[in-house]
Amino acid sequence: MTGAVTTPGAGLAPSPAHHDVHHRLRIAAVAVLAVFIGVGVWTLVDRLTATSADGTAAAPIAVRSLHTWSVSDLQRRLRVAGYALPVTGVLDPVTKSAAADFLRPGQVDSLWPSLAVGLQGTAITGRRDVAAWDARFGTDRATRMVERPLTGAGGQLDAYGNLSGR
């Protein structure tokens, strides 16, 4: 009887093709991970730079500096972001409306205390749609022959800068 002498474990070593499959799977896993990391970074950068739906970038807000803003500071920041409103130092309904469009929900608590109190009752939307806001409330908007005033009795905005129901 002829017998073949075999060594223990012979024939169990992975073939080069088997090694190649594992290598390709590792490369695919790293590529998928890189895509997920890239999407996460992209989303983070987008949120930090506050890019609006129409593709225009609003000025980013450093949350730590909000607690030192006065009304004039807020108005200047709104103007830099593209909102057409005067810098008067007065927290009027038009400024409140622009702040509601510009600030993110939850940022009011980070504002200078008197400014945060002044914005109580204002619905912070965080839309950052500067073009739409300017077209309706900005100082350079095109007005119609018969248009309700922006503020005051029968105005488009209530005392808090919210759209009035009239």
Can you describe this structure?
By secondary structure, this protein is an all-alpha fold. It is built from five helices and no strands. The chain has helices at 16-49, 71-80, 93-102, 113-118, 130-137.
Layout of helices and strands, plus pairs?
Blueprint: H1 16-49, H2 71-80, H3 93-102, H4 113-118, H5 130-137
Please name the defining characteristics of this protein.
166 residues, mainly alpha
The rough form would be described as: elongated
Could you give the count of β-strands? 0
Strand fraction: under 5%
Evaluate the radius of gyration.
30 Å
The helix/strand class is: mainly alpha
Helix count, DSSP H or I runs of 4 or more residues: 5
The major pleated sheet works out as: none
Low-confidence stretches: 51-64
Mean pLDDT: 77
N-to-C span: 106 Å
Percent of residues in helical segments? 40-55%
- Secondary-structure element pattern, one letter each: HHHHH
Task: Briefly characterize the structure.
By secondary structure, the chain is mostly helical. 41% of the residues lie in helices and 0% in strands.
